Amino acid sequence: MTNRIQAVPTTQINNDRAIVTEWRFAPGTETGWHTHGHDYIVVPMTNGMLHLETPDGLKEFELIAGQSYTRGAGVNHNVINASTHEVVFVEIEIR
User: How far apart are alpha carbons 62 and 6 in whole angstroms?
Assistant: First the structure.
């Protein structure tokens, strides 16, 4: 287990329909292990490479600015910025 600096989340909307959070990752920062309680959509604002620590091992995922993707509730992982620059995305959780 590595102690990394935490990425910076900024909640933009939190109501009965959705939670919208902007995530800013300096190089090497992480979210910390978490399990998603809702289906969610990620909207990358920058390009970048993420490392995903998962129960099944380490995975790489390339972010492409403007190319959104979705995942279901129950995803369990730690997201790490493996890029040499800041990575930013907006996460939209659907209640």
Answer: 20
